[in-house]
């Protein structure tokens, strides 16, 4: 209990030290994990919709998940106080997609025009509801206190006006480094792909995802039933062909006609022998071994068992746990700031105060769909040689630095792009 209390005090001090509402939103959805475990978190505002999602650097307002979540949280914004809900507490139209987007249980925390929600597979205990209710109250008060306020400022005249205009122009043209934020994780830099050596069906996966394996260790087996049957038939045919050849070789001493059959039967026996050797070689390859030491990188083993595979199809990869590079997903609207050679700084979720630096190696020219239904461009960056390379699989947020641009362009690029999409100019 003392540890939870100290963690709460630390998180409250960070919230009170925040300078902008967006910083408080980040702390509420990402750093609250130190208090209670959860899988997903979101913050919704009556004025701006979904303003923060756990594990996401930006919120794609047009994605199906965000559109559905806005409807749900708007529906729940009228609740009187904290409470735990499931899909059964929503109207049928909102409850039906629940299983596609959220875990079973959700803790809803209304905050005077905003809603904070945490979701996980396990139910929330009463003490957890009380703890997060206290945190939500502080988050709501702090965000309202930092909200921008409209002030009546008298417009200056004369020389003072010209001076302020000149200062404003110089500030607008002040060069700054353009940057974008993107979700990122550490992936293998030089993985060895393990492919199916034969056409067949995966019979057994011998390792677990991310398990360390030694060179030559068995990774998976293909079903050998069909090959074993073919090999048995081929061996019987070889025995028959060899018997016919020996019979003809003995008969040619007394029968001249049998002499003409010897060469034919010898070739047939050699053909059957080659077929047996081929099937024996294929049968020896149904158990696939690790080509090097490392960790096995693949998805859920149950998805592979019983699955037909073609020769050369990728089943898994073996990679060095510390031979990693950064993979980030940049939104299509931010691609103008990104290019090969750009500097990248990765803030890992496990150690946000120790950033990892890298250099962008490649950027996909075509956007692709991500598991969260957003569209983004894949980016790969090589870690600097001086960096202590983190282990494979860690996630975080990447900041990609672009070219130096005027401050006014950095501030108004996205609003101008949005206006052009609406008015068509």
List the helices and strands and how they pair.
Layout: H1 2-17, H2 21-30, E1 40-45, E2 49-53, H3 64-76, E3 83-85, H4 92-95, H5 98-101, E4 105-110, E5 114-120, H6 126-146, H7 158-172, E6 175-188, E7 192-195, E8 200-205, E9 212-213, E10 218-222, H8 225-251, H9 256-284, E11 287-289, E12 294-297, E13 308-309, E14 314-319, E15 324-331, E16 343-348, E17 356-363, E18 368-369, E19 375-383, E20 395-406, H10 407-423
Antiparallel strand pairs: 1-2, 1-5, 3-4, 4-5, 6-15, 6-20, 7-14, 8-10, 8-13, 9-12, 10-11, 12-14, 15-19, 16-17, 16-20, 17-19, 18-19
Helix pairs in contact: 1-6, 2-6, 8-9
> Whole-number average pLDDT?
82
Number of domains: 3
Helix coverage percent of residues? Answer: 25-40%
CATH architecture of the largest domain: 2-Layer Sandwich
End-to-end gap: 60 Å
* Main beta sheet strand tally, sense and closure: 6 strands, antiparallel, barrel
Class from helix and strand fractions: alpha+beta
Keywords: Coiled coil
Main location: other
Subcellular location: Cell envelope
Coiled coil: 224-251
Question: What does this entry look like structurally?
Answer:
This protein has 425 residues and is of the alpha+beta class. The protein has helices at 2-17, 21-30, 64-76, 92-95, 98-101, 126-146, 158-172, 225-251, 256-284, 407-423; strands at 40-45, 49-53, 83-85, 105-110, 114-120, 175-188, 192-195, 200-205, 212-213, 218-222, 287-289, 294-297, 308-309, 314-319, 324-331, 343-348, 356-363, 368-369, 375-383, 395-406. It has 10 helices and 20 strands. Strands 6-15-19-17-16-20 form a 6-stranded antiparallel beta barrel. It has a 5-stranded antiparallel sheet with strand order 2-1-5-4-3, sandwiched between helices. Strands 7-14-12-9 form a 4-stranded antiparallel sheet, with no helix packed on it. Strand 16 and strand 17 form a beta hairpin. The chain is elongated, with a radius of gyration of 32 Å.
